[in-house]
Design a protein that fits this description.
- This protein has 80 residues and is of the alpha+beta class.
- Helix content is 38%, strand content 19%.
- The protein has a two-stranded antiparallel sheet.
Length: 80
């Protein structure tokens, strides 16, 4: 979520590469992030094209690194 919130497609790609996390929707998320950078990149410091989160939940609270859980997130991207 933090990598997506940066609004930088490269940060999201780097996160995926580093962690190898499986994120459902990673491809559409990456596409919309790259498009937002092209559309709003010149608006540095603006909230346009930035993601904001409304809700976050986990299927299970993890107690150790070997566990497994699914996270659910809802959010939106600010548009003009």
């Amino acid at each position: 979520m933090a990598a997506i919130a940066t609004g930088k497609h490269s940060e999201f790609v780097s996160y995926l590469s580093k962690t190898r996390n499986t994120i459902c929707g990673r491809h559409p998320i990456g596409v919309i992030m790259a498009a937002a950078e092209l559309m709003f990149g010149e608006n540095k410091g603006s909230s346009l094209g930035k993601f904001r989160y409304l809700y976050y939940a986990q299927s299970e609270a993890l107690e150790d690194a070997g566990g497994s859980s699914v996270s659910y997130v809802s959010g939106f991207m600010e548009m003009p």
